[in-house]
Design brief:
The protein is α+β, with helices and mostly antiparallel strands and 382 residues long. Helix content is 48%, strand content 15%. It has a four-stranded mixed β-sheet. Strands 2-3-7-6 form a four-stranded antiparallel β-sheet, with helices on one face. A two-stranded antiparallel sheet has the order 9-10.
Length: 382
Amino acid sequence: MKYDVFNEEHEQFRVQLRRFLADRVTPHAAEWERNRQIPRQIWQEMGQLGFLGFCYDPAYGGVGADDLFRVVMSEEMARCSAGGFGVAVCAHNDMSTTYIDLLGTHEQKLRWLKPCTAGEKVCAIAVSEPGAGSDVAGIATRAERKGDHYVIEGQKTFITNGYYGDILVTAVKTDTKAVPPHKGISLIVVEKGMKGVTARKLEKIGGHASDTAEIFFDQVEVPVEHLLGAEGQAFYAIMKNFQLERLVATILAVSFAQHILELTMDHAKQRVAFGKPIAKFQAVRHKLAEMATAIELNRALSYQCAVQYAKGEDVTKEISMLKYASAEMVNRVAYDATQLFGGYGYMAEYEVARLYADLRAVTIAGGTTEIMKDIVGRLMGL
């Protein structure tokens, strides 16, 4: 189906990005998965070509592009055969540097946002803790002000880009007695190499190229100039950016599902059983039709949400609906594709098998299916 969403500039960006990914990423995807690491050179190349921070002000290396460019970026990242790489880049572009852009001073943006846009530094957002995920108000990591420094004590976990990253935008409690508790939450930038910061790389079942870390803060002294915005302002910024984060996640989910469908259709046309391609069997055709229908339904809502979000409209309920619907959908598509590939679908050398493992986290990261349903229910007045 043709959608009237993107203009000529969006499509030119798509062509350039697709060419880059096909040349510089897809051929190396399996190697990066094995090495559990994305080469720094790729970040730098992406920065030089304008694929990072393009929505930011030109003063900080961007071009002031609209949010629909983020949609194009996410769609193309899902096609490059490197699930972990796509997650890492979107976490940098849409889920962490966004806070520096939203809350940072001119000096802070020059110091942190500009090198991130150039691909010289990699950024991460550290909110989740062992005892707090979507319940942001429940975080326990503390930052006590002592003179011209904050002293941070606590722990974060499941942090994308948290091990190899350079800049950690960290949610902390600067006022542990605030009522309600969310008014005591602030964002502080912690730089790689600061004394008292240690990170442990976590081993996942998929998305191996993207590093995910558990981070410990042991009496970490951070200058007060590293505070983003005002004390107690972070909760509202986090809630605002959650919508962008979840929108990007849904675009990735829909696009990964489309890519998996295309891989499966090609396989079904070539794989012969009982004298004919398996695509000729009714059971297989029906399954592929179900997959295509589910993808198209989610794509329609994702584009509508993206257009309204880009206009500055509040689509929290619709994005929350889409987050859980698309996440559950792409997992079903990945499962069915693995089944249709048969034994090959269980072999790690096949892309569909890697994606099956990579995509399991989509129903968890950025807000679980259960949390999304609860948000929708509350916004329905229930």
